[in-house]
Structures are given as C-alpha cells and as structure tokens.
Amino acid sequence: MEELERRGQLTEEQATELAALQTKVAQRKQQTKEENAKQYKARKAAAARVVELEELEGRGS
Length: 61
Known about the structure:
Layout (H helix, E strand, L loop, with lengths): L1 H5 L5 H49 L1
C-alpha cells in the first residue's frame, strides 16, 4: 500500500486506512519496546541478586 501511496495511486479511503494502520503499528512497536525494556530490567535485577547471594554464600563457607 505504501508503494501505491508513493506513486499517488491510493484512494482517499485507502489513504485513511493506511494512516490508521500505521498508527496501530507504531503503537504496537512502542508497546513492544516498553515490554522488552521491562523484561531486560527484571533480568538484570535477577542477575544482580544472584551475584549478591553467591557473594553471601561465599562468605559463609
């Protein structure tokens, strides 16, 4: 559809549909990015906690 738009061959209805779909795609990409960042932070915190607990375990031996 975007190629048709570049060629100027979209109807008004198609252009409206394209704009709506582009908005949905952009929102989904942003949501995915936020979810990925949240998961990364959780993994990083878990890894830091493992290191902390392993250090404590090493001191107890």
